[in-house]
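seq:
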Amino acid sequence: MAVFLSPVGGVAAQFFTNTGAVLTGGKLYTYAAGTTTPLTTYTTSGGGTARTNPIILDSAGRVPDGGEIWLSTSQYKFVLCDSNNVLISSWDNIWGIGAPGGTAIQTPVIFNSTGTGSNTTFALGGSPTNENTTNVYVSGIYQQKNTYSLSGANLVFSQAPPLNATIEVNYL
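struct:
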């Protein structure tokens, strides 16, 4: 059986209450996405041993039995509660990392250049797919979105970066 590491509590995660206390005895329920139908998770990458549902967290607020959560090829819903079943948080429509149907992990494109003191436009070599996943740095300082714009495959600063400033752009 193919199983995939869970992005929720996957390996050695520690859970806390909303006030920051360790979630001793907390409960992590797993359901089919969008439902309250229990869905099995597994203890190892072999997928041979099912976890209890809910997963009862240990005294350190961690997943017991190796601290790993592995998922089938289905989408999941996770519900985290304290030991008295008071809801702390929930996450829905979660795929295992690399699962078919899930979003593959994307490697960001990294663009590097050097400021001339007068140039405001830099050709990135590719168009970012989402401005929210684009990070711009000038000499290691993160630039707020109001200091530049994206126009296709071009990065346009409102003010030219200083002479010899390093410009780094990370984008998907």
